[in-house]
């Protein structure tokens, strides 16, 4: 016997309803690696115990990430035609020499698209990174960044879509995620978690409350100074 549910009349779905459902269920990619538009595989210098961008680096003649049609090629000047660098799980504490190093190994440094500096000992985000304006993916998780204001330096990276900062002391700051999303409104993913529409709205409200709190602090400081005089 046919169940009651299956006896109910059904109507053809309106195209608008289908489109609406499609919009609601559409997911923004959180792991950008799978859709990364490689012109060549990344230059991978992970797990090398490297501590300085100024020192001698190990031979880069290594097997690149497997890809059926793309290989890691060098130009006649000995530079690599890649737009991705991986320095994860090393011993870097600062960015000294970073820009020069990238210029030495990449044929087109300004086209750097993906940079992985996760699991190092970086305390800051250096402004040198702004020289690479095409960056879309930046991994900085597992470092020693402790000041939330370091995020402000990334606001000039207009194409940045995916950023990771979890595993840094900065993650413990109150309102951390909303602060980052306010400073970097074009992010599609933060700490491998997609940015939702509600978070974007909350980030705007967070900014307003933050400004109000800062104004209160300024007024209190003025009152204190006046009282001291």
What secondary-structure arrangement, pairings included, does this model have?
Elements: H1 4-7, H2 15-25, E1 43-44, E2 84-86, H3 98-105, E3 114-116, E4 137-139, E5 162-164, H4 176-183, E6 189-190, E7 193-194, H5 197-228
Parallel strand pairs: 1-2, 2-3, 3-4, 4-5, 5-6
Antiparallel strand pairs: 6-7
Helix pairs in contact: 4-5
Question: What class would the helix/strand composition place it in?
Answer: alpha/beta
Helix content: 25-40%
Largest sheet: 7 strands, mixed
Q: Average the pLDDT over all residues and give the rounded result.
A: 79
Number of strands: 7
Strand content: 5-15%
- The span between the termini is 91 Å
Q: What's the tally of helices?
A: 5
Low-confidence stretches: 4-29
Radius of gyration: 24 Å
Give helix and strand order, one letter per element, not per position: HHEEHEEEHEEH
Overall 3D shape: globular
Assembly form of the protein: single chain
User: Main sheet: which strands, in order across?
Assistant: 1-2-3-4-5-6-7
Please characterize this protein's 3D structure:
The protein is α/β, with parallel strands linked by helices and 229 residues long. Helix content is 28%, strand content 8%. The protein contains five helices and seven strands, in the order ααββαβββαββα. It has helices at residues 4-7, 15-25, 98-105, 176-183, 197-228; strands at 43-44, 84-86, 114-116, 137-139, 162-164, 189-190, 193-194. Strands 1-2-3-4-5-6-7 form a seven-stranded mixed β-sheet, with no helix packed on it. α4 (176-183) links the parallel β5 (162-164) and β6 (189-190). α4 crosses α5 (197-228). The radius of gyration is 24 Å and the shape is globular. The protein starts with a helix and ends with a helix. 21% of the residues are buried.
């Amino acid at each position: 016997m046919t169940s009651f549910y299956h006896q109910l009349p059904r109507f053809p779905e309106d195209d608008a309803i289908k489109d609406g459902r499609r919009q609601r269920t559409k997911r923004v990619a959180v792991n950008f690696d799978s859709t990364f538009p490689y012109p060549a595989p990344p230059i991978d210098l992970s797990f090398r115990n490297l501590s300085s961008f100024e020192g001698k680096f190990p031979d880069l003649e290594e097997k690149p990430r497997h890809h059926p049609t793309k290989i890691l090629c060098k130009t006649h000047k000995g530079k690599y035609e890649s737009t991705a660098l991986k320095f994860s799980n090393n011993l870097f504490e600062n960015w000294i020499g970073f820009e020069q190093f990238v210029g030495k190994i990449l044929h087109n440094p300004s086209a750097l698209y993906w940079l992985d500096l996760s699991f190092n000992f970086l305390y800051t985000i250096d402004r040198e990174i702004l020289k690479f304006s095409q960056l879309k993916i930046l991994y900085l998780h597992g470092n020693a960044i402790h000041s939330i204001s370091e995020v402000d330096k990334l606001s000039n990276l207009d194409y940045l879509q995916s950023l990771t900062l979890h595993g840094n002391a900065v993650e413990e700051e109150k309102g951390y995620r909303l602060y980052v999303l306010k400073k970097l409104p074009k992010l599609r993913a933060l700490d491998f978690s997609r940015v939702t529409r509600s978070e974007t709205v909350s980030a705007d409200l967070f900014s307003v409350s933050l400004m109000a709190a800062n104004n209160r602090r300024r007024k209190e400081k003025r009152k204190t100074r006046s009282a001291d005089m």
